[in-house]
C-alpha cells in the first residue's frame, strides 16, 4: 500500500512537472514568435520610404528610411531624432528595439551622424581619432560632447601638446582658442598643413590675438562692444551636416567673423550678421581638408537647441564607422534579431534590428 501510494504521488509529480514545462515552453515560444514578428515588421517598414514620402517627426504615419532600397541619410537622422515612445507607437510594438547598419566588414556605420537608433540606453561612440582644444573653461561648450561621443583627446590651453600630435587626428575642434601672437606665429603653418592634408577643422570664437589673423585661407576677425541686435545673424544657406533652416535667426554672445581670401575654395556662407553681412557661420575647402567656422557656440534667441545641432553636425561631418554594438548590458528576458540588405553610397550594407523584452 505504501509503495502504491508513493508511486501514485511520484507519477502525479512527473505529470505536473512535464505539463508545466510544456506550457512554459509553449508560452516562451509564443513570446519569441511575437517578438520576431514585430522585428520583421519594423525591418520591413524601415526598408520603405515611409508615409508620407517626405515624412517628418510631426507628420509621419509610417516610418521608413530607404528609397528604392537605398538608405536615405536624411531619414536616418529623422529616425534618430524621433522620440523613443513615439517610435514604438509608429512601429506598433510594445517591445524595445534598436536599429543600426554594418558594412561588409561588420563595422557599425556612422550614417549622417547616426550610429544607431532606438533604445536610448545603448550608447555608441564615433570611431574616429579626434582632438578638442580650449583655453577657457567658460568657453568649453563642446568639451563633454567631444569627450563622451568622440572619446577625443582633450587639450586645455596646451597648443604645443596638440600640435605635436596633429598627424594622429582626423577631426579637430578648437573652441575659442585665443592663441597668443607667439603661439599663433609658431603653429599657424602646422595647423594649415593639418587641414590641407585632409583634416576636418572646426573653429569657434577668437582664433588668436590681436583681433585679425589669417589662417587656412581666411581672415579671422573680432569686433568688440556690439549690441545684441548687432550680434544677431540669420541663416542664408543650408548645409548637409547642420540642420539649420534658411531664415533661422540667432544672437551670438560675442561678435567674431571670417572673411575668405584667395586660398579658400568653395566658401559657403551659412549664416551672416544682419547689419553687416559678415560671415558668422561658414564652411570652406582648404587643400584636401574642410574648415567650419562658428562665431560662438553660445547663442540666444534661437528657436531650437543650437548646441544639439552643432553636435549632431559634428557626427555628420565625420561619417565613417562607430564602436561595436554591445547588447549584453541590457536587461532582456528574450531577444530576437533580423537582418536586411540595403545599399548606401552605392555599397551593400546590412540593416540589423534587435527586439527584446
Description:
This protein has two domains: 136 residues, no CATH class; 188 residues, Class I glutamine amidotransferase (GATase) domain (Rossmann fold). The radius of gyration is 27 Å and the shape is elongated. About 2% of the residues have low confidence. The chain is an alpha+beta fold and 357 residues long. The strands form five sheets. A ten-stranded mixed β-sheet has the order 7-6-8-9-17-16-15-12-13-18, sandwiched between helices. A four-stranded antiparallel β-sheet has the order 5-3-21-20. A three-stranded antiparallel β-sheet has the order 10-11-14. Helix 4 links the parallel strand 6 and strand 7. The longest helix is centred in the N-terminal third of the chain and has 45 residues. It is built from seven helices and 21 strands.
Q: How are the secondary structure elements laid out?
A:
Elements: H1 2-46, E1 66-67, E2 70-71, H2 73-81, H3 84-90, E3 96-102, E4 108-109, E5 117-118, E6 130-134, H4 143-149, E7 153-156, H5 159-164, E8 171-175, H6 181-196, E9 200-204, E10 213-215, E11 218-223, E12 232-235, E13 249-252, E14 255-260, E15 265-273, E16 279-286, E17 289-294, E18 299-300, H7 306-317, E19 321-322, E20 335-344, E21 347-356
Parallel strand pairs: 6-7, 6-8, 8-9, 9-17
Antiparallel strand pairs: 1-2, 3-5, 3-21, 4-19, 10-11, 11-14, 12-13, 12-15, 13-18, 15-16, 16-17, 20-21
Amino acid at each position: 500500500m505504501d509503495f502504491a501510494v508513493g508511486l501514485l504521488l511520484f507519477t502525479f509529480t512527473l505529470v505536473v512537472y512535464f505539463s508545466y514545462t510544456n506550457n512554459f515552453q509553449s508560452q516562451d515560444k509564443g513570446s519569441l514568435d511575437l517578438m520576431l514578428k514585430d522585428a520583421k515588421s519594423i525591418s520591413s517598414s524601415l526598408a520603405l520610404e515611409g508615409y508620407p514620402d517626405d515624412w517628418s517627426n510631426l507628420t509621419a504615419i509610417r516610418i521608413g528610411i530607404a528609397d528604392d532600397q537605398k538608405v536615405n541619410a536624411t531619414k536616418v537622422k529623422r529616425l534618430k531624432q524621433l522620440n523613443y515612445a513615439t517610435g514604438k507607437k509608429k512601429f506598433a510594438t510594445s517591445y524595445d528595439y534598436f536599429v543600426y547598419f554594418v558594412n561588409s566588414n561588420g563595422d557599425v556605420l556612422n550614417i549622417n551622424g547616426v550610429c544607431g537608433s532606438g533604445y536610448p540606453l545603448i550608447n555608441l561612440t564615433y570611431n574616429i581619432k579626434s582632438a578638442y582644444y580650449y583655453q577657457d573653461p567658460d568657453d568649453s561648450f563642446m568639451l563633454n560632447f567631444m569627450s563622451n561621443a568622440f572619446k577625443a583627446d582633450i587639450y586645455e590651453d596646451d597648443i604645443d601638446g596638440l600640435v605635436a600630435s596633429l598627424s594622429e587626428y582626423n577631426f579637430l575642434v578648437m573652441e575659442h582658442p585665443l592663441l597668443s601672437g607667439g603661439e599663433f606665429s609658431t603653429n599657424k603653418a602646422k595647423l594649415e598643413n593639418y587641414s590641407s592634408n585632409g583634416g576636418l577643422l572646426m573653429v569657434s570664437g577668437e582664433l588668436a590675438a590681436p583681433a585679425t589673423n589669417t589662417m587656412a585661407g581666411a581672415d579671422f576677425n573680432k569686433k568688440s562692444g556690439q549690441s545684441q541686435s548687432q550680434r544677431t545673424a540669420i541663416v542664408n544657406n543650408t548645409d548637409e551636416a547642420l540642420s539649420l533652416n534658411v531664415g533661422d535667426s540667432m544672437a551670438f554672445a560675442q561678435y567674431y567673423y571670417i572673411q575668405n581670401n584667395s586660398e579658400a575654395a568653395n566658401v559657403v556662407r551659412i549664416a551672416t550678421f544682419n547689419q553687416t553681412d559678415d560671415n558668422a557661420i561658414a564652411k570652406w575647402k582648404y587643400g584636401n581638408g574642410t574648415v567650419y567656422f562658428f562665431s560662438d557656440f553660445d547663442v540666444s534667441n534661437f528657436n531650437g537647441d543650437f548646441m544639439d545641432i552643432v553636435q549632431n553636425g559634428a557626427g555628420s561631418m565625420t561619417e565613417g564607422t562607430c564602436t561595436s554594438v554591445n547588447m549584453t548590458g541590457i536587461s532582456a528576458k528574450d531577444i530576437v534579431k533580423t537582418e536586411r540588405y540595403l545599399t548606401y553610397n552605392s555599397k551593400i550594407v546590412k540593416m540589423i534590428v534587435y527586439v527584446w523584452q
